[in-house]
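Z., the sequence and structure:
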Amino acid sequence: MRLYAGMSVPFIEDTVRNQIARKLSDAFFNYYGYPPAKSEVASWGNSLRAMAQVVQFAKLDDHGVVVEYELPSSSRRLDFMICGRNAADRDEAVIVELKQWSECEAADAEGLVTTWVGGKNRELAHPSVQVGQYQQYLADTHSAFYEGDHPIRLGACSYLHNYQIRPSDVLLAPKFSTTIANYPVFGSDGVDGLADYLRSRLEAGNGQPVLARIEQSKYRPSRKLMDYVADTIADRSPWVLLDEQLVVFEKIRAVVAAGVNHGRQHVVIVRGGPGTGKSVLAINLLSRFLADGRTAHYATGSRAFTQTLWKLVGSRAKPVLKYFNSYRNALPGEIDVLICDESHRIRETSNDRFTPKVKRSTEPQIRELLRATKTAVFFIDDRQGVRPNEIGSTDYIKQHAADLRAEVLEFELEVQFRCSGSAGFVNWISNTLGTERTANQLWTGAEAFEFIIFPTPESMEAAIRAKAVGAVTARLTAGYCWQWSDPNADGTLVDDVVIGGWRKPWNARPDSGRLAKGIPPADLWATDPGGIEQVGCIYTAQGFEVDYIGVIWGKDLTYDLDTQSWVGNRQECQDRSVRQKKADFLQLIKNTYRVLLSRGMKGCYVCFLDKNTERFVRSRMDLLPIRMVAEPRPPYG
């Protein structure tokens, strides 16, 4: 989809006559069904006027132009693309990222700079990094740029038409030198350089047939992209399949082959508790399907987990590593296999708090996912729902699959790969919380797995820090019992989690803006070494595993010894969306602690803020093999 396409001379005329923003607005409304934001319309007028002047100055008067070009299976749009033929009479196109920035500052993170956007300083991708990713994305997913004997060559640059780039500018920092060499950045006084860059690639003009190739070609992952993702995953030894994982892996491959060959839609549901290797299996399936030449995507509802995968596999993998809300505009059956991990995080719809009212859809998110693919594979734990608007469950998926007359197959993963292989610990947690009846009523200890109760958060933090040495990972987490503040003006975090004299910040909020050095963004809290300095909440911990997990068990979930029952205390919960949920509040809080307690591979440490709750948990343990830390307890409750 694009909002505007044509030849360069009419584009210049539309801009000079102040018609370009109106034409884009009309096209936007016709496609999306609602008007664009006023700020976006204003940016079109300003940035495209500056770009049209460059095109006119460079005498690019026989070239194809595309404006606001949507990347396949993405909500991102390219600002501007111009195409034609080079001196060797080869088809070529250039993406130009347009920025209205006037200044920016350095950022510690690789590939980022800090600039004022949306009312505050934010860390954003360097323009050359951003446009380079767009170039790679399009080259990997649009057949015009990779198919045939002479695919269209694709270049990219950025134009900051309000920004005077000085010799010592942070935009020109040494860490960006290689990226800038591949994807140049031009400032307000760089018109000559930008004109030369475009002329050198599009000298021969004749852009009409090149534009037609772009418009008529298809979206599908290139063989190079599929091989890249498959090889990258295959090279990571922690993602090796074992035992029942391998059995389910081969059965799912057979189902997908049958679905493709016979043209009938299949839905596969793979259930498993924490640590049963659902994500490992899901990632391996993606790798194999891509290696087999299938059009396969992996999707999840977790921003933190998806961002971490992008970091591990590389940003080039973004076209096949998606979010659940990426399929609103997908064509029926355009994907051979859609692998949905963490499917308990499927939402009612793909709307979020940033979705404008006029853009909100009533179509269930599950229907968008099912529509997009020939075979859908859902990995799910029915007892991991921790947010009211996350409604994925086995029954819910089967209901919608039946409505579409899809054939449903179900598999169960039971072998435990977390908690040092102790399925008994996970089962004991479920039994103790009353979320599932299991045979493990008492925790009698596992030699290779540590479960320790600490009397104070200070002692538990010391133990967690002592474990975090070398390659060992350890993190502190807590129930959502304290406010979660925005960062201070200097990017430091507020010590929100206060217990007696012990104080600690939550991990950074999503979209926090600029953070002080050493503080990881929320999405990377579980994997960045700096994460040990903060307390993780359920939304950053879910989906991850560490060697040792420390859990502060707050007063939002307590045990009443008189009634012998669990009690959910709304007044102690600071998660507004959960607190306002009337019917399922207790179950959501139980699920939260079940998830937190099961994040550890080698050990789980707990500090209870309610004494009766601690007494109950101790009563469910065979005390002889269990280690307790003897230390005076402050009066927390």
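The two ends are 59 Å apart (CA to CA). Residues 624-630 have pLDDT under 50 and may be disordered.

Let me know what you think.
H.
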